[in-house]
C-alpha cells in the first residue's frame, strides 16, 4: 500500500509545480528562482587534461553558441590530429584560434589564429607566446578572459566571446610599448593568403588546410577556410609575414606560413577585433560579420546574447538534491553535448567538400557517428528536437553529393571507424516520430549502405585510417552477404564489423517499415541475426572468423571479446538465449567484477543496462551509479575518456535521469538509477515538463523499489520515447535494498 500511495501524493505536488513551470519562460523562471543561470554552473575546464596525452576528455574552453560553426578558444599549443589547441597543463598562450576541430582524434580545417603583443612584432608561434596562470583565467561558455604577462613584466588583458561564425576579441594593452596584433593564416607548408586594407581596418584571406585531407576519397581541391578580421582601431603601420619573417608595408601575400600584422598608434589602450569565418568566400565571411556582429555592436551585448542562447537550453533543467560539483558536471555535460554536430551552412547556403561546390540548404558537420549514435543523438531528440530534421536532411545532402551517408564527416568523409551508423540515426528519429525529411531518399541511402559493397571491397583490408581508399561504408560487405560474417582474413576489424552490420540491418528494417517496404523489412530483420554466426559456443564469446569458417584472433575495433560479446544491442533476448540466462548474467558479473568494462570508450556504454533484460535490474542500478562516480568529476581531468562529440556527456546526462537507449534505433530506453531527488525538464516545444522524482534518493538508496509514469506503475524497466517526449511525471521509489524490478 505504502509503495502506491507515495507516488500519488507526490504526483499531485509535482503536477502543481509543473503547472507553474509551464506558465513561465526560461528567463522568467530564472527571475523567480532568484539566482544565476545554470550556464554559470558550467566548468569549461572539465576534460582539458588527463594522465594520457591523448586519451583524456579532449575538450577546450571554447566560446560560441550551441552547434556553432566556428568555436573560439585560447590557444596554448599547435593543434593537429590527436592534439587540441588548449591543454590545461600548458603555461604559455600562443594565440586565440577560430577552430573547426571537433574532437581530439580529428584534424582541424580552415582555422585562423590571432595574437596581441607589445613592442617588437614577433610572428612565430613560440616567439609571440606570453605566459599566463589559471589564477588569471575565467572561462564560461559565452565569455573567456585571461591576463598575460609581457616580456617587460606588464599585464596584457584579453577577453573573448563569439557567435556561430564570428569571434569577438578584446585586448587591453599596458602603458608604454606600442601595441600590435599578429594574424596567422597558415602554417609551414600550407599556402594561404592574407590581404590588409588599412582604410577598412580589415585583414582578410584564406587557409586551405584540412588536416584530415589524406583520409577518404574526397580531396576537395577548392576548399578554403575564409576569414575577415575587422578592427575598431586605426593601423599606424602594417605588413605581412611568412613564418618568422616580416615584410614591412606589404598588404597582400599568398605563401606558405602566411600571416599579417598591424601596429596601433602609441598610447592605444584597448583594441577590439571581430574575426568572421566562412567556408564559401571572403565576401560571405564579411556578410557573416555584418549579420552577426555588425559595426557598433558591443562586446558585452554579444556575450549576453551567447549566454542567452545557452540559457535557453540549460535553464530548461532544474535539479534538486545535487551537490555543487554534481551540478557542474551535469550542466557542463549539456554544454559539451549541445556543440555537435556543428553548423556548416551559412544563411541558406553551404560549401560541400564532397563535390567541392556551394549548394543551397542547411548543412551540419562533425558527424562522429560511431560514437554519437549510442546516446548523443537520443539526447538531442529530447533537448534539441528543433534541429533533428535539418540534421537528417544534411546527411541526405551528403549522400546526394558524395554517394554515401556520412560515417565520420570532417568536413567530408574521413573513413574513420567502422559501420554505417547513420542508418541507426535515421531509424531512431523515425521511430521517435520525426518525419520532416525525405523518407524515401533516406531509405534509398540506408538500402545502399546495406546492400552495396564499397569499391575494391575484395582487394582492400580497410585498416584504421588507411589512406587512398574509396568511401569505406560497410567494408567487407561482400563476405557478410556471402557467408553471414565479415571474413577476418580479408577485412580488418571483421568481428566488430559483423556485429555492427547486424545491428545496422535491424535499423534499416525500421526505415523499410516506415516507407512501406514490408518484404525488405523482413529480409533485413532476418539478416540482423547474423551476429549469431560469430558466436563461439565453446567459449561463450563472440569471435572473428576467417572466410573458410575457422576461428580467428582479434578483429575488434577499440575493444576486445569482453566488450563486443555484449554488442548485440538490437536483440538482447537473442543473445541471452545463446548464453542462457544464468550464463549471461554470470558473464556480465565477470565483466564488471574482473574490470573488463572500459567506460572511456563507447562500446562499453550500454553494457551496465543489460541486466535489465535478464531480470536483474538492481545490478544495472548499482553499476550505473558506480560508473558515474568513477568517471565524471568537476575538475580539469574530470572525464575519463574522450568526450567524442558529446557521447561521454550524453551517457551521464541520460543516466542521471534514469534512462539510457541500449538499442537507440528502437526509440526505447532501458531504466537505471536516477542520480538526483528531482529533475524538472521543460522540453522544447512541449507545454508540460518532464519531472523525474526520486525523493528518497541517496548514495545508499540507489535501488529502485518501484517506478511510476503519471501514477501508473511501470511493469518492466523500459520506457518508450513517446512515453516521456511530451512531458510527464516519472517517479522512482528508491531503496537501500537490491530487489527485482517491481518486487516488494
Automatic annotation (TrEMBL):
Its EC number is 3.2.1.-. Residues 284-735 form the Glycosyl hydrolase family domain. It comes from the Bacteria. GO terms for molecular function: hydrolase activity, acting on glycosyl bonds. The keyword Hydrolase applies. Keywords: Glycosidase, Hydrolase. InterPro entries: 6-hairpin_glycosidase_sf (IPR008928), GH-type_carb-bd (IPR014718), GH92_a_mannosidase_put (IPR005887), GH92_N (IPR041371), Glyco_hydro_92 (IPR012939), PNGase (IPR050883). Residues 42-278 form the Glycosyl hydrolase family 92 N-terminal domain. Gene3D superfamilies: 2.70.98.10, alpha-1,2-mannosidase, alpha-1,2-mannosidases domains, GH92 mannosidase domain. It holds the Pfam family Glyco_hydro_92N. The keyword Hydrolase applies. NCBIfam families: aman2_put. This is GH92 family glycosyl hydrolase.
Amino acid at each position: 500500500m505504502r509503495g502506491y500511495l507515495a507516488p500519488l501524493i507526490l504526483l499531485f505536488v509535482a503536477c502543481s509545480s509543473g503547472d507553474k513551470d509551464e506558465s513561465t519562460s526560461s528567463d522568467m523562471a530564472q527571475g523567480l528562482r532568484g539566482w544565476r543561470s545554470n550556464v554559470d554552473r558550467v566548468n569549461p575546464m572539465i576534460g582539458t587534461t588527463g594522465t594520457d596525452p591523448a586519451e583524456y576528455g579532449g575538450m577546450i574552453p571554447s566560446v560560441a553558441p550551441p552547434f556553432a560553426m566556428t568555436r573560439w578558444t585560447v590557444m596554448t599549443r599547435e593543434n593537429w590530429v590527436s592534439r587540441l589547441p588548449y591543454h590545461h597543463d600548458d603555461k604559455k598562450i600562443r594565440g586565440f584560434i577560430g577552430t573547426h576541430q571537433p574532437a581530439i582524434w580529428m584534424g582541424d580545417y580552415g582555422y585562423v589564429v590571432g595574437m596581441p603583443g607589445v613592442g617588437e612584432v614577433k610572428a612565430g608561434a613560440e616567439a609571440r607566446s606570453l605566459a599566463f596562470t589559471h589564477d588569471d583565467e575565467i572561462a564560461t561558455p559565452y565569455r573567456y578572459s585571461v591576463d598575460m604577462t609581457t616580456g617587460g613584466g606588464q599585464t596584457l588583458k584579453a577577453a573573448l566571446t563569439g557567435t556561430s561564425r564570428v569571434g569577438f576579441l578584446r585586448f587591453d594593452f599596458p602603458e608604454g610599448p606600442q601595441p600590435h596584433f599578429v594574424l596567422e593564416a597558415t602554417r609551414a607548408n600550407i599556402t594561404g593568403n592574407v590581404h590588409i586594407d588599412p582604410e577598412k581596418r580589415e585583414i582578410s584571406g584564406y587557409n586551405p588546410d584540412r588536416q584530415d585531407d589524406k583520409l577518404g576519397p574526397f580531396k576537395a581541391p577548392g576548399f578554403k577556410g575564409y576569414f575577415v578580421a575587422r578592427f575598431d582601431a586605426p593601423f599606424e603601420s602594417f605588413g605581412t609575414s611568412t613564418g618568422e619573417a616580416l615584410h614591412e608595408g606589404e598588404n597582400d601575400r599568398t605563401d606558405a606560413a602566411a600571416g599579417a600584422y598591424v601596429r596601433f598608434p602609441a598610447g592605444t589602450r584597448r583594441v577590439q577585433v571581430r574575426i568572421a569565418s566562412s567556408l564559401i568566400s571572403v565576401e560571405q565571411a564579411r556578410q557573416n560579420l555584418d549579420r552577426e556582429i555588425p559595426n557598433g555592436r558591443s562586446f558585452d551585448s554579444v556575450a549576453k546574447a551567447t549566454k542567452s542562447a545557452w540559457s535557453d537550453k540549460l535553464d530548461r533543467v532544474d535539479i534538486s538534491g545535487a551537490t555543487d560539483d554534481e551540478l557542474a558536471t551535469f550542466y557542463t555535460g549539456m554544454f559539451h553535448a549541445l556543440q555537435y554536430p556543428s553548423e556548416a551552412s551559412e544563411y541558406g547556403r553551404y560549401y560541400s567538400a564532397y563535390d567541392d561546390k556551394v549548394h543551397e540548404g542547411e548543412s551540419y558537420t562533425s558527424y562522429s557517428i560511431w560514437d554519437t549514435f549510442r546516446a548523443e543523438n537520443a539526447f538531442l531528440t529530447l533537448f534539441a528536437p528543433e534541429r533533428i530534421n535539418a540534421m537528417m536532411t544534411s546527411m541526405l545532402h551528403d549522400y546526394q553529393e558524395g554517394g554515401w551517408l556520412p560515417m565520420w564527416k570532417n568536413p567530408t568523409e574521413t573513413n574513420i571507424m567502422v559501420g554505417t551508423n547513420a542508418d541507426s540515426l535515421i531509424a531512431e528519429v523515425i521511430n521517435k516520430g520525426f518525419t520532416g525529411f525525405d523518407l524515401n531518399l533516406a531509405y534509398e541511402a540506408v538500402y545502399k549502405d546495406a546492400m552495396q559493397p564499397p569499391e575494391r571491397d575484395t582487394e582492400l583490408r580497410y585498416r584504421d585510417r588507411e589512406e587512398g581508399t574509396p568511401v569505406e561504408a560497410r567494408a567487407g560487405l561482400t563476405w557478410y552477404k556471402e557467408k553471414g560474417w565479415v571474413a577476418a582474413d580479408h577485412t580488418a576489424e571483421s568481428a566488430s564489423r559483423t556485429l555492427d552490420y547486424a545491428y545496422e540491418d535491424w535499423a534499416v528494417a525500421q526505415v523499410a517499415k516506415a516507407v512501406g517496404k514490408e518484404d525488405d523489412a523482413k529480409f533485413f530483420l532476418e539478416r540482423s541475426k547474423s551476429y549469431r554466426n560469430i558466436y563461439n559456443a565453446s567459449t561463450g564469446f563472440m569471435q572473428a572468423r576467417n572466410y573458410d569458417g575457422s576461428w580467428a584472433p582479434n578483429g575488434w575495433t577499440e575493444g576486445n571479446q569482453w566488450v563486443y560479446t555484449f554488442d548485440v544491442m538490437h536483440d538482447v533476448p537473442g543473445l541471452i538465449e545463446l548464453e542462457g540466462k544464468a550464463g549471461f548474467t554470470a558473464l556480465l558479473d565477470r565483466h564488471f567484477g574482473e574490470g573488463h568494462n572500459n567506460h572511456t570508450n563507447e562500446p562499453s556504454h550500454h553494457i551496465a543496462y543489460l541486466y535489465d533484460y535478464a531480470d536483474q535490474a538492481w545490478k544495472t542500478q548499482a553499476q550505473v551509479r558506480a560508473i558515474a562516480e568513477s568517471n565524471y568529476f568537476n575538475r580539469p581531468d574530470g572525464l575519463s575518456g574522450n568526450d567524442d562529440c558529446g557521447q561521454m556527456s550524453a551517457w551521464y546526462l541520460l543516466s542521471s535521469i534514469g534512462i539510457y537507449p541500449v538499442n537507440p534505433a528502437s526509440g526505447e530506453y532501458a531504466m537505471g538509477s536516477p542520480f538526483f531527488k528531482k529533475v524538472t525538464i521543460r522540453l522544447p516545444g512541449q507545454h508540460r515538463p518532464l519531472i523525474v522524482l526520486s525523493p528518497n534518493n541517496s548514495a545508499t538508496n540507489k535501488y529502485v523499489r518501484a517506478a511510476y509514469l503519471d501514477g501508473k506503475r511501470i511493469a518492466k524497466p523500459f520506457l518508450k520515447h513517446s512515453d516521456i517526449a511530451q512531458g510527464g511525471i516519472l517517479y522512482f521509489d528508491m531503496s537501500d535494498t537490491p530487489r527485482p524490478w517491481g518486487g516488494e
